[in-house]
Design a protein that fits this description.
- The chain is of the alpha+beta class.
- It contains 16 helices and 53 strands.
- Strands 14, 15, 16, 17, 19, 21, 22 and 27 form an 8-stranded mixed sheet that branches. Strands 40, 41, 42, 43, 44 and 45 form a 6-stranded antiparallel sheet that branches.
């Protein structure tokens, strides 16, 4: 069921549907071109649907595709129709694979740039042999003949008739006639497999032949040979491009055309110089870059370009699901143009590199299976350090099976250290327009894939310091960009793209054909030899970025520190640390090509991403030394006054280095917070940090989790709240990664504030901790530590610390559990050394009358032995001491956050009951520790109450660690003494569920 080719010239108006491979020929000689057409849509996927219980009960995987917009069902698919399928398998541990990719792409992580060796993926992350065998048996039992599993273990090929596939997967098939008149088939139900193997399958690709993959290039306009841009070349005479010595400029076909380099087109040298890249005949030597193509390329056109620019770059072809000579010839001025753009751009910018053209079947007849096969071959071959693709399809019409399979393949590439860049599309914010006619916001796959770097497009004129760059959006097309409908927010975009899903593109480069890329193409209707032309599209921007990565990999820094690999983590870190040094920000224009889209602005936007490369600075950032995380027993350094590291309300620590944002942290989003080198904290050697976390302007119930950047996000929480419009704080001790960053994530949109109270280093210059039996130093309700029982209103309480509750005269800092209770209206508490300037950071926050809320604070002690507690608003105040820091005592060790207790999975802790929790032996905590650092949360509270943590075997103190009113979920950090048996006891006077997450230990 081959698809037809359709003619298309110029840019369609809003009412028209642009069809075909995204080629729109705008010849200066007024010659129209032919574009291949692929039109249709498939449905988004959904979670698997379970059938009847039982190990072999059927289970459907994903959802069936929808009939594309404008298509009509024409009847059942012929039972003998041959289907080429792949049953795609999940990695043996998807989370471990994701964690590994994060580790190898995060500076400071012990695994940074320690990629998998070639061919290692299957044994480390691929499905187990038992899984592969089990799925194969199930397929055979269903009457299919599964082929040999792929080298990475991720897919099992199956060739079957429609009738066989129908029986095996419990689905029907029907034909649909598309708007362009072609006919395809699609499955009527999601595929079904026995439940005992379905969990290992991410999807079955190839059950539908509907596909809209297209190349993202514009039309080519002819470069005149006679000095006039409007001269038409006619006749079928042949000519030879004379071989030149290498020059970053071009031959007379372009320099003598009357077109101006840097205005009408960009020669390799002019483009490289504008982006700060190197120009030489050997740049990129020792590197290999692969291009994804779905068409033949004219070898004569590539040779003509090499002669023009004076290069001898190695270009080879690997055929996937096709053979040499198959498919439409690259002789009509349309077929082969995409490939020529990709390859010529790379030849010009990295002539010393080797280029591999991975060629699949023609786009006009290619299926999702063919597309997946080409990507998988590029990755499993593992020959290229950089992969560039200028082809894609609207994310909304791609099947979930295909998207999920691609995602695993791209994760495999990242694990191996391969960089993947993809064009973001040429239809502005309406990426589905040509597939379905929809002007709704949509983005392109694979540019939206989390493990791919999406590349948008710009318009550029001039060079060097005089160059200007704006968003590409004119009569030839517009840069693709927007927000994914499929992929969740990604950690690397945290604080930069504050969107509820993955934002696209990541970066951008030249794409406008009015000042685009010089290439040669073959059009037999005009000449028997290749013709010079100028072309654009994000198809040019993607290989430009690929070349930038190749140049970085070939440089001395990357040669010493490892190739870039998956670059998005490093890209966004570079933007946060030194944005103007590493990126050329594009601040004007929009991508409202068919409907209102997005507008360029200072910093990141869903139009041109972070902007274009400044190669020198970017190479330094992408090829930085690996670094090492500080480890081991640590001592504490209190800050004289808390320092604010993050405040999403005003942009403190939020956004790019020079362009802050004031948007809240979205649900599912992550805020990377730089710790080392900020607020008086050393630039290295920090093992942990004590933060006071505050949420405000909450939009619903939620929680915050803190952990070391570049490591696995734990299933723990540090701060919890129960509704909208709340302001609530909790302290947290967080392990610091080798890059000096901690990550904060929330599951509910909120503003977030992080104030640092102190930090731990692996040296011995700080103070050590001594745990005390908790003791009450202040209770304004009952004249403890104060001579009145009146609530405190907008006043300071002086609290004697040294010589009280076991705190000695040599103590330098004290650990207090502060509680506000019986509050009136909103307010907060601030604790600080007596006599010091009152800080601007708060420790305990409340937003309503009748609140009871605690928080742990670490406060330096003034020379008079006192600390001050300022009450803003009206409240009773309680202060319980649980330990102190001094020159004696024990050091602190961080651990990976781990949940040690959750009574929601067993039985709530009853009123008046005590629960003993084993600490020693958990999460690597040794025997004999003196204290443990926990985040303790109560939830499902049945009435007002309190919780006290104390050493098992000791007497229960009268002090409390958590206080609450009925129905609230409250968290607090607790530094609890550990009994000689390695246990900590929790006592509550009101039935509640108790959760305990560990962050470290002392002793």
């Amino acid at each position: 069921m081959a698809k037809k080719a359709h003619a298309a010239s110029g840019r369609p108006g809003p009412a028209a549907v642009r069809t075909g491979r995204r080629a729109r020929v705008i010849m200066a000689a007024s010659t129209a071109a032919v574009a291949l057409t692929v039109v249709t849509a498939t449905a988004n996927g959904a979670v698997a649907q379970t059938g009847t219980p039982g190990s072999d009960a059927p289970k459907r995987i994903g959802t069936a595709p929808r009939v594309p917009a404008g298509a009509t069902v024409t009847g059942a698919t012929a039972s003998g129709t041959t289907l080429h399928l792949s049953v795609n398998l999940a990695p043996r541990d998807p989370q471990s694979l994701a964690d590994f990719v994060t580790a190898v792409s995060t500076p400071g992580n012990a695994q940074y740039h320690h990629y998998l060796a070639k061919g290692q993926f299957a044994s480390v992350f691929g499905p187990t042999r038992a899984t592969i065998a089990g799925v194969s048996r199930a397929l055979k039992a269903a009457g299919l003949a599964p082929g040999k599993v792929s080298p990475d273990g991720l897919s099992i090929p199956v060739t079957a008739t429609a009738a066989q596939a129908s029986r095996a997967f419990a689905t029907g098939f029907r034909n649909v006639r598309l708007k362009d008149g072609t006919t395809d088939y699609l499955n009527t139900s999601a595929p079904s497999l026995p439940a005992d193997v379905a969990a290992s399958v991410t999807g079955v690709v190839g059950l539908s032949s509907v596909n809209t993959v297209a190349g993202h290039h514009t039309a080519a306009r002819r470069a005149s040979r006679t000095g006039s841009a409007s001269t038409t070349v006619s006749g079928r005479g042949s000519r030879t491009v004379t071989a030149n010595a290498y020059s970053p400029a071009l031959c007379a076909d372009f320099t003598g055309s009357g077109l101006v380099d840097g205005t009408d087109y960009y020669s390799p040298g002019k483009l490289a110089g504008t982006y700060g890249m190197t120009s030489s005949a050997t740049v990129g030597a020792g590197q290999t870059v692969a291009v994804f193509e779905l068409e033949n390329v004219d070898a004569g056109s590539i040779a003509a370009y090499q002669s023009c620019v004076g290069t001898s770059t190695s270009v080879s072809t690997v055929y996937v699901d096709t053979t040499s000579g198959a498919g439409a010839p690259a002789t009509d001025g349309s077929v082969g143009v995409e490939s020529a753009l990709d390859i010529d751009d790379l030849i010009g910018l990295v002539p010393g590199a080797s280029i591999i053209d991975y060629q699949g079947p023609d786009a006009a007849s290619a299926t999702d299976q063919n597309v997946l096969d080409v990507y998988q071959r590029m990755v499993t071959d593992d020959q290229a350090q950089v992969i560039s693709t200028s082809w894609g399809e609207c994310e909304a019409v791609e099947s979930s099976a295909t998207a999920n399979a691609e995602n695993t393949v791209f994760a495999e590439a990242a694990a191996q250290g391969q960089s993947v860049v993809a064009a973001s599309g040429d239809d502005g914010s309406s990426d589905c327009y040509r597939a379905t006619g929809s002007t709704a916001k949509a983005v392109d796959d694979p540019a939206s894939q989390p493990y791919v770097t999406g590349v948008g497009g710009t318009t550029m004129t001039g060079s060097g310091s005089s160059a200007t760059q704006t968003t590409w959006n004119n009569d030839t097309g517009g840069t693709g960009g927007g927000v994914s409908s499929r992929w969740a927010p990604v950690v690397y975009q945290g604080g930069v793209a504050t969107t509820t899903k993955r934002a696209v593109p990541d970066v951008s480069a030249l794409a406008d054909p009015h000042n685009g890329y010089p290439i040669y193409l073959q059009d037999n209707s005009q000449s028997s030899s290749p013709l010079p032309a100028i072309i654009g599209g994000t198809s040019g921007a993607a290989p430009t970025w690929a070349a930038a990565i190749v140049q970085a990999n070939a440089g001395t820094a990357c040669q010493a520190n490892g190739q870039v690999g998956f670059l998005n983590n490093a890209l966004y870190k570079a933007a946060r640390s030194s944005y103007p040094t590493n990126f050329w920000d594009v601040t004007s224009g929009n991508n409202s090509t068919y409907a209102t889209g997005f507008t360029s602005a200072a910093g990141y936007d869903e139009v041109t991403g972070l902007g274009s490369p400044k190669e020198a600075g970017l190479t330094t950032a992408l090829c930085a030394a690996k670094g090492t995380a500080a480890t081991g027993a640590s001592t504490f350094h209190p800050l004289s006054s808390p320092k604010r590291l993050l405040d999403t309300r005003n942009g403190t620590g939020w956004g790019l280095s020079s362009i802050p944002t004031t948007k809240p942290l979205v649900a599912g989003g992550t805020a990377p917070v730089k710790v080392e080198g900020v607020g008086g904290i050393p630039s290295s050697g920090v093992t942990g940090v004590v933060l006071n976390l505050t949420v405000t302007g909450t939009t619903g119930a939620g929680s915050v989790t803190a952990w070391a950047d570049g490591t696995t996000k734990p299933s723990t929480s540090n701060l919890n709240w129960t509704g909208a419009s709340q302001t609530i704080a909790a302290s947290a001790t967080v392990k610091v990664a080798g890059d000096g960053v901690v990550d904060l994530s929330t599951n509910s949109t909120t503003h977030l504030i992080a104030d640092v109270q102190g930090y731990y280093t692996s040296g011995t210059t700080g103070s050590k901790y001594t745990a005390l039996a908790p003791a009450r130093l202040l209770d304004t309700r009952s004249k403890v530590g104060i001579s009145t029982t009146t609530k405190i209103s907008n006043a300071v309480v002086s609290l004697k610390v040294r010589g009280h509750g076991g705190v000695p005269t040599g103590a330098t800092s004290v650990v207090l559990n502060l509680t506000a209770t019986q509050t009136v209206g909103g307010g907060y508490l601030e604790a600080y050394p007596e006599g010091a300037t009152r800080p601007t950071a708060s420790n305990v926050n409340w937003s309503a009358t009748g609140t009871t809320i605690p928080n742990l604070v670490v406060v330096p002690i003034a020379s008079d032995g006192n600390v001050s507690i300022y009450v803003h608003g009206t409240s009773h105040v309680i202060a319980d001491v649980s330990g102190y820091f001094s020159t004696s005592g024990s050091a602190f060790d961080t651990v990976t956050p781990l949940r040690l207790l959750d009574t929601r999975t067993t039985t709530p802790l009853g009123s008046g009951k005590t629960l003993a929790l084993q600490i020693s032996g958990a999460d690597g905590i040794p025997a004999g520790v003196k204290a443990v650092v926990l985040t303790v949360t109560v939830t499902g509270t049945t009435g007002s109450g309190y919780l006290t943590a104390f050493a098992d075997g000791g007497s229960r103190p009268t002090a409390s660690n958590l206080n609450w009113v009925q129905g609230k979920t409250i968290s607090n950090q607790v530094i609890a003494p550990v009994g000689s048996d390695g246990k900590v006891d929790f006592y509550t006077n009101s039935t509640t569920n108790v959760i305990a997450d560990v962050a470290g230990y002392i002793g």
